[in-house]
Design goal:
This protein is of the alpha/beta class and about 280 residues long. It has helices at about 15-25, 45-55, 80, 100-110, 125-135, 150-155, 205-210, 225-230, 240-255, 260-275; strands spanning about 1-10, 30-35, 55-60, 75, 85-90, 95, 115-120, 140-145, 160-165, 175, 190-195, 200, 215, 235-240. Strands 2-1-3-5-6-4 form a six-stranded mixed beta sheet, with helices on both faces. Helix 1 crosses helix 9, helix 4 crosses helix 5 (about 125-135) and helix 4 (about 100-110) crosses helix 9 (about 240-255).
Length: about 280
Amino acid sequence: MLKLAVVGKDVSASQSPAMHTFILNRLGVSCAYDAVSVRPELFSAHAEELFAKYDAFFVTIPFKGEIIPFLKELRGDAPAFGAVNLVLSCERAGYNTDGYGFLLMLENAGVSVTGKTVLVIGAGGAGRSCVKKLVERGAKVSVFERDSLRLEKVRKEIGGFTPLEEVPIAPYDVVINCTGIGMHDTVGATPSVTFAGGGVAPVGKELLSLCGTAVDLIYVPAESEFLRVARGCGKKTVNGASMLFYQAYYGDCILLKREPSADEAKEFWNAYTEAKK
């Protein structure tokens, strides 16, 4: 039996244990899966315990970058993303499957990004991976990040997008919240941006009423305030639940050294959502 965990600042409501257990069982593997919440200031002191206790562990906000100094190798998309969401303990190797999960989420939701205008809010670990995949898919990407140094670093390392110091009130085909604002202790809030000529303010109807689709990587609550506002404007909305599932599927395939299949991932997601009804 595999001993696994998801590790984050607050994973008390995480769906990861249920998702990974479902996926692995479908693949004929049993597991014990823990949800490990760690205060950010204590993460470094407890990181080594994770390698000793678990065969592998999945990393979420805010430790996708903090885990890297404890690893021997970054593989796949992890070096380009500068963030890790899967660690194989015995190899001390880190992977990032966020990008694969993100693209499959959009595809399965019927959201095309090739040639489309996309505004990404937030360039942290998740935002960075989304930006890279969007650029690779040929989207016309603009990125707002309140931390100008972080934004400049992503521009230098990934490129292919327009960095924004101010967000214009303009139509975008897709607007994506990658900040994490709207979950945990920020439920009911939307991310704040610096609007062109308008100062800092939360994203609301003024911007979302002009978009085609609003995407929020948050999946708890199922409808964030960001998505609620967009839905109220009659817009298509997508939350991050299927992204989490798909990146979990790709991560489990890496763990089992198994070739992934997008069709199989979709089949498993449909079965998972049906089982939860």
